[in-house]
Amino acid sequence: MRRQVAVIATTGPVEMALAAKQATATIPIVFTTGNDPVRVGLVAALNKPGGNITGVTTMNAELGSKWVGLLHDLLPRATRFALLVNPGTRANSTEMVANIQDAATAIGLQLEVVYAGTSGELEAALAGAAQRQAGALMIVGDSLFLDNRAEIAELALHHRLPAIYVNRAFPEAGGLMSYASDWTDTFRQVGVYCGRILKGAKPADLPVQQQTRFRLVINLKTAKALGLIISDNLITLADEVIE
């Protein structure tokens, strides 16, 4: 605000967008979030955001049921899945945890939630998931987990936990697979909105965009290390296969 910028783009957790909204009611703001922006109080409505803020929602919170389905297809005999959550940003993942819990319950699966609030707690969290005999692991979106993706992928492999993630960067770092919105396209949309605002458009007149492009990425090398056989059908569904 002191620099009198023309527009602010927030591309991190929803707390960043909320902080920007609290800081200024005049400078235009363009956000990205995996949450429902109406529910968390960013905008009044998707089609008419109102005020000085608009953006793009990836609606990642709704991906939980898809994660459960993909893991269940891969591991049909598993009866228990684990979910890794950062307790420090639990509010940011409330929707997704509820979505995953509902999806797991619907097909008779037990869900074990394990917590890690620092990088030093990751080992204990994943060891706890293994001790509870989880057949697979899901990791919600969080900057702590993204920053430590290589360690998480290594720990998941060490504890024999097939895992699904919310970002392509995880299978790139050795994780098993990811299913999530296309972040490249999401950031492009943010750039388009920033450009329109710089040319005179008002955020209140720009409806919140909902991401409709999702990508499935599978790391076959990790699958082999875990002793998993990825079906031809799942490979066909994948947007990218890392060999």
Give your account of this protein's structure.
- This protein is α/β, with parallel strands linked by helices and 243 residues long.
- It has two domains: 8-60 and 182-213, Rossmann fold; 61-180 and 215-242, Rossmann fold (3-Layer(aba) Sandwich), CATH 3.40.50.2300.
- The protein contains ten helices and eleven strands.
- The chain has helices at 14-23, 64-74, 90-106, 122-131, 143-147, 149-158, 169-172, 183-198, 220-225, 232-237, and strands at 8-10, 29-33, 53-57, 80-85, 110-115, 136-139, 163-165, 177-181, 209-210, 214-219, 240-242.
- It has a seven-stranded mixed β-sheet, with helices on both faces. Strands 1-2-3-9 form a four-stranded parallel β-sheet, with helices on both faces.
- Helix 7 links the parallel strand 7 and strand 8.
- The longest helix has 17 residues, at 90-106.
- It is elongated, with a radius of gyration of 19 Å.
- The termini are far apart.
- 39% of the residues are buried.
- The model has no long low-confidence stretch (mean pLDDT 92).
